[in-house]
Amino acid sequence: MLINSAVYDDGRLVAEPGLDELSEALAASATSFVWIALRDPNDDELTRLRRGLDLPALAVEDARKGQQRPKVEEYGDITFAVMHLLEAGSDGLVVGEVHVFVGPRFVVSVRHRSQQGFLGVRDRAEREPELLRQGPGFVLYALMDAVVDRYIPLMDDIDDKLETLEATMFQPRQDRQAVVQQLFALKQRLATLRHAVTPLLEVTSKLHGGRVPMVCKALQDYFRDVYDHLVRLQASIDAARETIIAATQVNLTLVTVEESLVTKRLAAWAAIFAASTALAGIWGMNFEHMPELKWAYGYPLALGTIALVSGALYWRFKRLRWL
After folding, report:
1. For burial by CB atoms within 10 Å, which of 251, 266, 279, 299 has the most?
2. Which of 224, 97, 230, 218 is nearest to 155 (CA)?
3. CA nearest 148: which of 201, 81, 107, 190?
4. What radius of gyration do the chain's Cα atoms show?
5. Residue 87 is inside which H or E element, if any?
6. Contact, 122 vs 88, CB < 8 A?
7. Rounded-to-integer distance, Cα 309 and Cα 272, Å
């Protein structure tokens, strides 16, 4: 579906052509370029777009199928970029994609499986015509910068939830199974974010310094800024990943410690009752020559002895912190 189509000349909007009017709109001025945005396009729209702008067939096929990893490829003077769009869902992060074709006189963004639009990016660019005047390369930077900026709140949310779990992990009577489940859910979110950031970090490093695509040559400082953001995100992901691994190990250790404490308590109570049972068993034997059977105070004495032994064992286990 066509979301927007606009022709810019000298940084200002001059026309909004349809897909079949691109050639005529670009022919009106040699310095203009067109910015087209599509969402979940059908085969007919992509075919018309490929013919109108002479897009590379292999890249169009990637944009048609989706399910691509973040990458940047060059097809002559056309640069093709793929980025993941991440949204917070009830069961984790929902992964969408945006495919961007950048040529000397056009930018085409194709969005798949995502509700995140780029109207804010377009509005910002139109408010700053001196930046839009730099052409399609700036639009690629603006789109990439917007995608990366949307990763940051997701990373902050993971960090906040991880800090909350760490703060409550050592509280008594904590549900360890629930904690492990939450840690695993955070690990899944972090893995999804890492799969979006790490490949994009690799390809963004090729957009500044050394040989870069022609559309990016005058904007290397901008792409270096995006690269710096990705480096910080990657460092945060690595730190959070290590924290999750450590927290999981600590939680499993706490489970073992709690199980050991339960075992000690059970062993202590078993010893107390074993002593009582042993004494009761001895006095319960009906031997003829057991003197206490003839004593008037034999029964109270037996009960007192059992209570004394049980109390001594309880006191001892209490000092050992088994109870």
Report:
1. 251
2. 230
3. 201
4. 35
5. strand 78-89
6. no
7. 8
**Angle in degrees, CA 144, 146, 149, rounded to 5:** 110
Over the stretch 248-287, which tens digit does the pLDDT of each residue have?
A: 888 888 777 777 777 777 777 777 777 777 766 656 655 4
Q: Who's near 47: CB < 8 A, 6+ residues apart?
A: none
Three-state secondary structure call for residue 10: coil
Give the residue ranges of DSSP H helices in 169-219: 176-204
Residue 296, number of CB atoms within 10 A of its CB: 7
For the beta carbon of residue 270, count every other beta carbon within 10 angstroms. Answer: 11
| Spatial strand order in the sheet of 2-9 | 12-15, 2-9, 33-39, 106-112, 92-103, 78-89, 71-75
The string over 181-194, giving b where at least 16 C-beta atoms fall within 10 Å of a residue's C-beta and e elsewhere, is ebbeebbebbebbb
Dihedral, CA atoms, 37, 42, 44, 45, nearest 10 degrees? 0
For 117, 189, 213, 301, 312, the CA distances from 7, given in Å and listed in that order, are 19, 39, 22, 105, 92
* Residue 5 near residue 34 (C-beta atoms within 8 A): yes
Asked whether 108 and 100 are in contact (CB, 8 A), the reply is yes
CB 85 within 8 A of CB 185: no
Helices (H), the chain: 22-27, 43-53, 57-65, 119-127, 129-132, 136-168, 176-204, 220-283, 298-319
Query: Any idea what DSSP says for residue 208?
Result: S
Q: How far apart are CA 218 and CA 236, in angstroms?
A: 30
What does the alpha-carbon distance between residue 129 and residue 277 come to, in Å, rounded to a whole number? Answer: 92
Where do we find the tokens 């009582």?
A: 276
Q: How far is CA 117 from CA 70, 120, 166, 180, 255, in A?
A: 18, 8, 35, 35, 46
Ordered domains of the chain (ranges, CATH): 2-255 (3.30.460.20), 256-319 (1.20.58.340)
